[in-house]
C-alpha cells in the first residue's frame, strides 16, 4: 500500500469517475455514478447480476462510451483521448477477464508474452525472463510454457491470465469476477495472489465480484451497486461505499441481505412478477 500519511497535502486519486451514465438502447445500466479510487487502494465492486459491474469496468478502460459523464485516469479524461493516446494509456492497465480470455491457439508462453511483444521493444531473452518471472509469481512452473490453455485447469488458466495482466507492470489492475467457477480452495488461491500482487507491485486495484469472501479478504473498501430497474428515480445506485468489515451491519437492509445471501424482498418481487405474467402460447 502507498503511505498516505507522509504528507498533509491532499493527493489526487488515480481514478475519478464523475456522473457516469451508460445506456444500451432503452435500457440504462449506470446512472450518475460517482467514484474515486486512491493510489494503492483496492476497491471491491459487488452487487447482483445486471447491476452494471462489468459495464463499469469496460467504461473505465474506454471500451464503452457513456451517454454522459467522465472518467479521469491520473488526471486525464480518457473520453477526450484520441485512439493513439487511449492505446498508450491502456498499457498502464492490467485486466483479468472473467474466463481469463487466453488465446487458444497460442502456448502459455506466447499468451503471457503477447502484451510485451505488442507494447514494448524488449529483446526476446528479456521477454522470456519476464514471462517466467510472472508465472512464478502466480505459482506456475516453467513446464507449462509450451502447453496450450485447453491443457490447463480453470484455476491455472486464471493464474496465467493474471500473469499476462501483470506482464507490463500496470498501475491499475481490473479484475472481473476472478474466482467465478473455481472451487473454494482455488478461489482462495486467487485471493492470495491478488494480495501478493499488491505487496510486490505498487498497484491500484478494482475487483468486481459476487464472492463475499473475496470482497472481505482483498479489499480496503467495498462499493455495492444496485440494479436501476429496482431503484427510485432519485435513489443513488451505490447502496454502500465503505470498509468491508461493516458490510453486515450496513444501514440499508438490501446490503445486509445481499451480503448474507438472503432472498428477502427479492423473492416477493419475483413472485409478484410471475403472478403478473401471463403465458401466451
Notes on the protein architecture:
The protein has 281 residues and is α/β, with parallel strands linked by helices. 35% of the residues lie in helices and 21% in strands. The protein has 9 helices and 10 strands. A 6-stranded mixed sheet has the order 6-7-8-3-9-10, sandwiched between helices. A 4-stranded antiparallel sheet has the order 2-1-4-5, with helices on one face. Strand 1 and strand 2 form a beta hairpin. It is globular. The N and C termini lie far apart (59 Å). The model is unreliable at 1-9 and 276-281 (pLDDT under 50).
- Give the neighbour order of strands across the main sheet: 6-7-8-3-9-10
Note the overall shape: globular
The number of domains is 2
Strand content: 15-25%
CATH architecture of the largest domain: 3-Layer(aba) Sandwich
Tell me the number of strands. Answer: 10
Helix content: 25-40%
Largest sheet: 6 strands, mixed
In CATH's first tier, which class of the largest domain applies?
Alpha Beta
Q: Mean pLDDT, nearest integer?
A: 88
SSE-based structural type:
alpha/beta
Amino acid at each position: 500500500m502507498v503511505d498516505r500519511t507522509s504528507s498533509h497535502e491532499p493527493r489526487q486519486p488515480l481514478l475519478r469517475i464523475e456522473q457516469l451514465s451508460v445506456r444500451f438502447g432503452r435500457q440504462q445500466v449506470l446512472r450518475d455514478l460517482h467514484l474515486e479510487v486512491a493510489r494503492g487502494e483496492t476497491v471491491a465492486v459487488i452487487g447482483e447480476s445486471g447491476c452494471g459491474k462489468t459495464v463499469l469496468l469496460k467504461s473505465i478502460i474506454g471500451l464503452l462510451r457513456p451517454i454522459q459523464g467522465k472518467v479521469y485516469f491520473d488526471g486525464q479524461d480518457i473520453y477526450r483521448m484520441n485512439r493513439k493516446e487511449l492505446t498508450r494509456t491502456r498499457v498502464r492497465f492490467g485486466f483479468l477477464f472473467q474466463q481469463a480470455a487466453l488465446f487458444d491457439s497460442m502456448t502459455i508462453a506466447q499468451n503471457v508474452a503477447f502484451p510485451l511483444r505488442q507494447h514494448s521493444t524488449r529483446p526476446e531473452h528479456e521477454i522470456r525472463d519476464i514471462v517466467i518471472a510472472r508465472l512464478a509469481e502466480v505459482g506456475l512452473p516453467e513446464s507449462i510454457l509450451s502447453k496450450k490453455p485447453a491443457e490447463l485447469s480453470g484455476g491455472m488458466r486464471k493464474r496465467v491470465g493474471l500473469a499476462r495482466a501483470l506482464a507490463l507492470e500496470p498501475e491499475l489492475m481490473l479484475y472481473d469476477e476472478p474466482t467465478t467457477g473455481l472451487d473454494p480452495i482455488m478461489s482462495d488461491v486467487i485471493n492470495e495472489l491478488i494480495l501478493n500482487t499488491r505487496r510486490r507491485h505498487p498497484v491500484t486495484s478494482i475487483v468486481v465480484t459476487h464472492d463475499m469472501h473475496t470482497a472481505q479478504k482483498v479489499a480496503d473498501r467495498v462499493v455495492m451497486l444496485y440494479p436501476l430497474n429496482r431503484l427510485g428515480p432519485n435513489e443513488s445506485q451505490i447502496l454502500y461505499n465503505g470498509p468491508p468489515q461493516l458490510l453486515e451491519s450496513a444501514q440499508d437492509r438490501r446490503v445486509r441481505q445481499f451480503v448474507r445471501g438472503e432472498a428477502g424482498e427479492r423473492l416477493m418481487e419475483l413472485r409478484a412478477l410471475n403472478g403478473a405474467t401471463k403465458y401466451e402460447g
